[in-house]
Design brief:
The complex is a heterodimer of chains A (495) and B (174). Chain A is an all-alpha fold and 495 residues long. Helices cover 73% and strands 1% of the residues of chain A. The longest helix of chain A is centred in the N-terminal third of the chain and has 33 residues. Chain B has 174 residues and is an all-alpha fold. Chain B contains seven helices and no strands. Classes of the chains: A mainly alpha (495), B mainly alpha (174).
């Protein structure tokens, strides 16, 4: 209890409140602009926070991370274009409701569902933190190695129908994390005698290239779309009453978001996919799903907004990011000299609680802001896409150049920008590269660190935690291969 | 096979991937070192070899899958057209790198205003209001990041030619 109370001390600072305000409102605005998204914004703003007080820098970025999906629901519902990729499922029922002149109801339903998901996950995690604080220090090198491996395997198999290319991209990410001078014998790896490759590929440079520059290139080479604006009629609290009516769907979806958020490598997509299917299976009118079912919006939005806070668990407790945004948040912590891992829960528990309390406040501010500012936000959706591309490219310069004022970094960033552009054009995933890069590095370190206690290969899994994680890996792979085999047989029958 | 729909451009993509992976495989003995007397797990060569082998394995199976699908649905003309479309962003990459090159010479403010103004014209926005918005956006970015947040961006060589007081002011804030 003392720790919780002491964690409130940061909120006595006015600059923390300004950071929360800028982060949360900024996040909503960024989320509402199709084609930008929190990944682009965090990648660009991360270097700008270097000079800030750590808690301020982290709070701004946490605000963007925690609030962007709220804003992303607006274009998803009104113009059938998700503001962030995870709002894609919201378009199914949200846009159908808009076509039926229920735009205001759909939007407020999305807000209240997001709010429920966000708050539910934060409260759940505040209660779970004491348990995590006891379990996290028990994780040794082998356990973290296995957890990172689980994260990578889940990232690959969660890309359904794209597992092969996701597997390749994970290994590619792992490979680029090995380039440069290694830390055991200080020998060069894949530098081709180029001095600029000695320090390897910086994660921020790769992130900016793959997310921000590639997105700018997509927008710059595309066309502007005319966006017809639907009118918003109805009361601000229509969604609240709708949510009360489907409170069980909201509770199940928020719980699903928390569970899926905690598992590294899974994230928002699977959380809302499962929630949506559960909501449909328990609905009295399942045929309405995809045609304007309020439960569909509730399931998608409550689940995806419950994930950010939950995803902080493996990140903070083990230093293992579960998806691209938490990989970015890991960089944010490192930059500000906060090393996520078991020690954080032992020595800096007030910091962890402070983060959850910040997320709690961010959710409240966002909710209030959205209830009163939705009409103004509609104008943002109408920013011409190609002009947005120019702005993102201009901002990407700030992100990459401020790292080291290096022209070479910018060339690397441009290279990854083109790679990201091609992957996006081919509809291939980018996230596996980032997770491969981050988790591959962790795995190499933990693999070496665990050697002192390894005699046979079974020693990797003879600890209770590593053994359990390994069992989960086996189960996950078995389910995946079973599903693939079943699909293969089904296809064979059809053809 | 996992995915039956063929996406145009995938064939070109896997060809590039296979060439790159083959090149990396061949490079392993030259680009990593093997130290005698050190256990395998601590060899610097081990981890990159593991990664490249994984890349090779997945890319090979993926290529076979793509080839199967290409044989059913693909056309070489569409592939070449797609390859051509991948060249489109290079123009903007060149503008971006020119902008990066210009900043230490002309300063962040002037370079950014030029970058936004010229790229806005290049994108076909010619109205006075759009050009003004682009200049204001560029100026706003410089003020927020350089003047207020004080991010580390080298000051322009051009500022040295300004009178003393102005020179310092521009170096610090723009």
């Amino acid at each position: 209890m003392d720790v919780i109370l002491s964690s409130f001390e940061i909120f006595l600072r006015w600059d923390v409140w300004v950071a929360i305000l800028i982060g949360s409102v900024g996040g909503v605005i960024i989320g509402a602009i199709p084609g930008v998204g929190p990944a682009v914004a965090i990648a660009i703003l991360l270097p700008a926070t270097y000079s800030m007080d750590p808690i301020i820098g982290i709070t701004v970025l946490l605000g963007i991370y925690g609030s962007a999906m709220y804003g992303g629901a607006i274009p998803a519902i009104l113009i059938n274009t998700p503001g962030t990729p995870v709002n894609a499922l919201t378009t199914y029922d949200g846009y159908s409701m808009t076509k039926n002149n229920m735009a205001r109801r759909a939007i407020t339903l999305a807000y209240w569902s997001s709010f429920t998901g966000g708050i539910f996950s934060i409260i759940a995690l505040i209660f779970m933190t004491s348990l995590i604080a006891k379990v996290a220090p028990l994780f040794g090198s082998r356990d973290i190695l296995m957890a990172a491996l689980l994260g990578l395997i889940l990232v690959v198999i969660s890309h359904r129908k794209q597992t092969l290319i996701a597997g390749f991209l994970v290994f590619f990410g792992m490979f680029i994390s090995t380039v440069g001078m290694e830390s055991v014998k200080y020998s060069k790896r894949f530098t081709y005698d180029q001095s600029w490759l000695l320090s390897g590929f910086d994660l921020i440079t790769v992130l900016l290239g793959l997310f921000a520059v590639s997105q700018a290139l997509i927008l710059l080479t595309g066309n502007d779309k005319k966006v017809p604006m639907p009118s918003l009629k109805g009361g601000k609290h229509e969604g609240f009453f709708g949510l009360i009516k489907y409170k069980i769907v909201a509770a199940i979806s928020a719980s699903m978001g928390v569970i899926m958020g905690i598992i590294p490598g899974v994230g928002e997509f699977l959380a809302q996919f499962f929630s949506y299917n559960i909501a449909r299976s328990i609905s009295k009118k399942p045929e309405r799903f995809g045609k304007g079912a309020p439960e569909g919006i509730i399931a998608a939005e409550a689940a995806n907004n419950a994930v950010p806070a939950a995803a902080m668990i493996p990140l903070l407790a083990l230093g293992i990011p579960g998806e691209a945004l938490t990989a970015m948040m890991l960089s944010v912590f490192y930059v500000h000299s906060i090393i996520p891992g078991p020690d954080l829960f032992e020595n800096n528990l007030d910091f962890v609680y402070g983060l959850y309390e910040s997320l709690f406040i961010i959710n409240i501010i966002v909710m209030v802001f959205l209830l009163f500012a939705t009409k103004s936000l509609l104008r943002i959706i109408q920013i011409p896409q190609r002009f947005l591309g120019i702005t993102i490219l201009g901002l990407s310069f700030v992100g990459v150049y401020t790292l080291r004022n290096s022209f070479v970094d910018c060339i690397m960033c441009a290279f990854f920008g083109i790679l990201g552009y091609v992957l996006k054009k081919l509809d291939l995933p980018i996230v596996p590269i980032i997770l491969g890069m981050v988790l591959g590095n962790i795995m190499e370190q933990k693999f070496r660190a665990s050697q002192a206690r390894i005699d046979t290969i079974f020693d990797y899994v003879n600890r209770p935690i590593s053994g359990t994680v390994f069992a989960i890996i086996v189960i996950a792979l078995s389910i995946h291969f079973w599903v693939v085999w079943r699909q293969y047989k089904k296809n064979k029958l059809i053809h | 096979m996992e995915k039956n729909e063929y996406q145009v451009g995938n064939l070109i993509f896997v060809i590039i991937v296979l060439f790159s992976v083959s090149f990396l495989l061949i490079s392993i003995p030259y680009q990593t070192k093997w130290f005698d007397g050190i256990p395998l797990v601590k060899q610097p060569r081990l981890w990159p070899t593991f990664c490249i082998t994984g890349m090779a394995l997945f890319s090979l199976i993926y290529s076979l899958q793509i080839w199967q699908n290409y044989k059913i649905e693909g056309r070489i003309q569409s592939e070449l057209k797609e390859l051509q479309s991948w060249a489109k962003p290079f123009e903007f990459v060149v503008y971006f790198l020119l902008y990066v090159w210009l900043v230490p010479l002309a300063g962040y403010l002037l370079s950014t205003l030029l970058f936004f103004f010229l790229l806005t014209i290049r994108q076909g926005y010619r109205t006075r209001s759009m050009l003004l918005i682009s200049l204001v956006t560029g100026f706003g970015i410089v003020v927020v990041f350089k003047s207020l947040l004080k991010v580390k961006i080298s000051s322009g060589a051009i500022y040295e030619y300004l009178p003393d007081g102005w020179s310092t002011f521009f170096m610090v804030y723009f």
